[in-house]
Design a protein that fits this description.
globular, 10 helices, alpha/beta, 305 residues, 41% helix
């Protein structure tokens, strides 16, 4: 058949929930355009029901993921980087269209995002050494503090940095054993939805990461108030929305990571995602468990046991 007579096969973007690719239960979609206003694709417009379903999936996956060894989680995150490397061209095209970047700049962004997965993969079995340790106490006891994952984390992805910023907020959450419900950039969701396809083939258990697209405020409100969500990252919220969500999150004492720094337009996308990420996002969603253990009675000579 001549190429002139062939119809192109357009990609159908879907949500990523519980390791599967459903359409929104509402049946709604919305148009996604590039920086010049040209149509790129239709993205699912998630509903509150989709958000609740994602929380159920994240909670179901939490036990197995948090119970995996830190070394194993590191292997899985590194596998994500491997799979992204093999699909780099696709993500370069999507990032270039979504963010209005040249091909070379988009390639640099994608390379940085892949490297970020590797960065966090290396931290999975090391964060415990800087976030925990043995505490000096007076008495015949061991006093040990160890970090543990908080639980289900709702993540509002950056609005402008559709891929590097997205990876920068997802990777540290799951690296430390949490599971995530992610609200993708409202105007540029396509790289996030494609990332779901990579996660599904990267040994990441279904439900560990759940990706929704749609109106950020519409999806964030039920997640902030959800009693089975343990923490929320407000990176993708503007000042007004962040305040509303923080008030809702207080109802069940969620951990809250506030958006910073705030840009002149009220958004939080003035953060430099190319900069070294440090460890603050790794420790943001960790709880510290401290245990006391007797060393045994000390004898007259000062020896124990």
């Amino acid at each position: 058949m001549s190429d002139q007579n062939r119809l192109s096969v357009f990609k159908t973007y879907k949500l990523y929930v519980g390791g599967k690719f459903p359409r929104s239960e509402s049946g709604r979609v919305y148009e996604v355009t590039d920086s010049k206003g040209q149509w790129l694709a239709n993205a699912p417009k998630s509903s509150r029901k989709d958000a609740r379903d994602a929380v159920v999936a994240a909670r179901k996956a939490f036990g197995g993921w948090s119970g995996a060894t830190a070394y194993n989680r590191g292997q899985v995150l590194y596998r994500v980087a491997e799979m992204l490397e093999g699909r780099k061209d696709q993500f370069v095209r999507e990032v270039a269209a979504s963010e209005g970047l040249s091909k070379s700049k988009a390639a640099a962004v994608v390379d940085a995002a892949i490297d970020r997965w590797v960065w966090y993969a290396g931290w999975t079995d090391k964060i415990g050494q800087i976030a925990g340790g043995a505490n000096p106490v007076a008495g015949p006891f061991f006093n040990l503090s160890t970090p543990e994952p908080t639980g289900v984390v709702a993540v509002l992805a950056p609005q402008k940095s559709s891929f590097l910023g997205l990876v920068s907020v997802i990777a540290p959450v799951i690296a430390t054993g949490n599971t995530a419900v992610v609200i993708a950039s409202a105007d540029a969701p396509l790289p996030a939805l494609s990332l779901g396809e990579v996660l599904a083939t990267s040994d990441v258990p279904g439900g560990v990461v759940n990706i929704l697209s749609g109106v950020t405020a519409e999806l964030a409100a039920p997640l902030a108030a959800h009693q089975d969500v343990n923490a929320i990252d407000l990176t993708g919220a503007d000042t007004a929305l962040a305040k509303e969500l923080e008030i809702a999150a207080a109802d069940n004492l969620k951990r809250v990571l506030r958006p910073q720094p705030v840009g002149a337009d009220g958004s939080s996308d003035s953060e430099d995602w190319q900069a070294s990420p440090g460890t603050h996002r790794l420790t943001a969603f960790l709880e510290t468990k401290t245990v006391w253990h007797p060393t045994g009675a000390l004898g007259a000579a000062g020896s124990s046991y």
